[in-house]
Amino acid sequence: xxxxxxxxxxxxxxxxxxxxxxxxxxxxxxGGMKCAGCAKAVERQLMQYSxxxxxxxxxxxxxxxxxCQPGAVDAEALAKKLTDNGFPSQSRLxxxxxxxxxxxxxxxxxxxxxQIKQLTIALILIILSGLGHVLGTKAPILSNIWFHWGLAxxxxxxxxxxxxxxxxxxxxxNAPNMNTLVALGAVTAYTASNAAxxxxxxxxxxxxxxxxxxxxxxxxxxTLEQQARRRAASALQALMALQPAKARLVDFKLPSLDLRSExxxxxxxxEVYNPQYIEIPADRVxxxxxxxxxxxxxxxxxxxxxxxxxxxxxxxxxxxxxxxxKQPGDTVAAGTINKSGAVVMRATRTGKETTxxxxxxxxxxxxxxxxxIQNLADTVAGYFVYGVMGISVLTFLFWYFAGTxxxxxxxxxxxxxxxGHGVMNMGNELPIIHYQSPLLLxxxxxxxxxxxxxxxxxxxxxxxxxxxGSGIGAERGLLIRGGDVLERVHQLDTVVFDKTGTLxxxxxxxxxxxxxxxxxxxxxxxxxxxxxxxxxxxxxxxVSGNRQDAxxxxxxVSGRVDSKLLQIAxxxxxxxxxxxxxxxxxxxxxxxxxxxxxxxxxxxxxxGVSALVExxxxxxxxxxxxxxxGVAVATEVSGSLQGKTAxxxxxxxxxxxxxxxxxxxxxxxxAAVERLRGMGLRVMMLTGDTAxxxxxxxxxxGLAAADVLAGVRPEGKARAIATLQAQxxxxxxxxxxxxDAPALAQADVGIGLHCxxxxxxxxxxxxxxxxxxxxxxxxxxxxxxxFNKIRQNLFWAFGYNxxxxxVAAGILLPATGILLSPAAAGAxxxxxxxxxxxxxxxxxxxxxx
Length: 849
Fold this sequence. Notes:
Elements: E1 24-30, H1 36-47, E2 52-58, E3 63-68, H2 75-84, E4 89-91, H3 97-135, H4 145-157, H5 161-172, H6 178-198, H7 209-232, H8 234-241, E5 246-250, E6 277-281, E7 290-293, E8 302-307, E9 310-313, H9 315-318, E10 324-326, E11 331-332, E12 337-338, E13 343-349, H10 355-368, H11 374-406, H12 438-452, H13 455-475, E14 478-480, H14 483-491, E15 494-498, H15 499-503, E16 509-515, E17 529-530, E18 540-543, E19 546-548, E20 552-553, E21 561-562, H16 564-573, H17 579-590, E22 598-604, E23 608-613, E24 616-621, H18 623-628, H19 635-639, E25 645-651, E26 654-662, H20 669-678, E27 682-686, H21 691-701, E28 708-709, H22 714-726, E29 731-735, H23 741-746, E30 749-752, E31 766-768, H24 774-808, H25 813-816, H26 822-841
């Protein structure tokens, strides 16, 4: 099959601009939020502050992220404003970051302990209330109506007090929440029961067990929800725990630090284990300082091994379980574990610049960014409680003035789901009631509407799924930047791979060279000394009209190939940082060739590099650049290096020769491409390499010619992606996160591969810590699965409220006789939010290690 890779047309759609100076981001820990209505209220208060551009509040992790104009917002003043409005807040600024995080964790644990205590009291009250129903006249005290009045009163004063107080305060601040609905329902039921008890001639029934059971179910649901949310956040907490607290600072100038012995016992008197050192907090280490790390200890900061040899467990950062050998010159990351030998390292990145700190920052940011699909839920949540109170009032008015007259049969007997006291004599002198008054029935239905509505399910639908998904990703070295990215991942239909360093290893090797030196002033013939030379290239005609057998190959040659051409190319490439330059310099070093003096280096991205070598301007680059310099390149020369990367070397308008290089395909490249195709995605390759070199790689991967974009300069890659987007494609670009930054920024989803040493690649929406193409597949699968969970949660949240509120309002009562009591409604409301969080936790089942 013949490949004819596409080239990029000149007329391209406009490229999306990339922000150069992003706004300042401030993060707050916010307490006191009970439901989506609270989160919306916090967002409104933040947006009212001068200088704030946008605000995003995550109910699941109780964190607010504020995007503001640089220097325009006083974080402490903004936190105080939230605190004064009933939402205790603290900014995450300053040097005491670790202490602030510890305080936040302790505060949440204290809240859980207090909630469990309240739940215990509520469950005891429920048991006592239930025994009164079960035992009846066998236990006169337990069935006495005044005893149940006492239980209801205790329920309101003890476990229910925080809910009622918060609900009333929220209503007073014009920001009603879930607690407002529960408080209204519980207090109304208690008040109506008191009226029935004090004025028995009204013929009302007492249902003191309703507030008891209602508050008990609510507290049970909130406790289970908190535990589930804690489990969902466990991955981030484990990631934060990787940051070591202490570091052992040593003076590397001491001659006693001899680390050649790797198996000394811990109680050894060797100075390897007992050097002169000072323990300091890890966040106080400065770049350039020397640190000692013993076996079993965590690496305190990012750095470079200076002395010693060991193996490092990097699984907590990359997900790779096998320890990695580290020797002098190798880099190590903070939070990884030294498994075997004592080492001395030099700090290169500290504090917030370390890999693990940046990972934590990325995951935290991801958990506060919402998916666009959540916008509808946020809009509903802002008016939800007001709407529910309005529906409750309408329910009361309808049944009192119309419903009980249209269907008088609803006043006879009790529904199957009614849990009131009306069917039993609780030791009071009141007779058994078989007839409900219209006022009491209307009131019970209105209360049921108040307590069955669940704004929590709406508020937790998106953040809990993102919380679990981002946690799974962090454990596996897949950092997804937020819910908006997850939604775009779900919409993808095309994945575009960069070739060099992404689909291939990026380790180019020199395979061919063609020294020509035709009509050149360089005296080079005497310098060409080829050992075991194989004449494998055909005679090249057409180079300045002369015939010359000048092609040599070093592919498979056992002897050395010493070449002036290689010396010249290496001298020029010394001024470039590119895989091609590294390969040429390495070959020159392996042949033992001395580098020629060179100066005045100039790099032209996508073309090549030039320099003054021995007083002559030398150009090394591709054929297009040679043409721009007025250098003729014969077709036969280009054809002799078919399928390889050709580097032409010229000086003063004369072609000196050409060097051929070859890259190897990654071992998992083909499998990754096949998996992506199996997921229904179109896979393409984008490269600045020649069409022939791209065709060779495409054949190995099984890519069609239409899926290969070759000869694209760095600035043209973004235009190529824009072209695909203009055709209606949703595009993901996979690159190294540095050279491909414009294309990554232009793409719908940018995936930065092998970014473990530079996590904060701002242009990539997904950062992969491991150097594995299969992680691209896994990240897309994780993104799709997480977004599906978001949709399931939102469907359940909207569906529950859409169906539950009408049932509580009595829509089934005339036809079926079903009357949903306030206690039953409270149970449904409590467990609806638990079900959302639990469904998010099920995401882990599909991504078990």
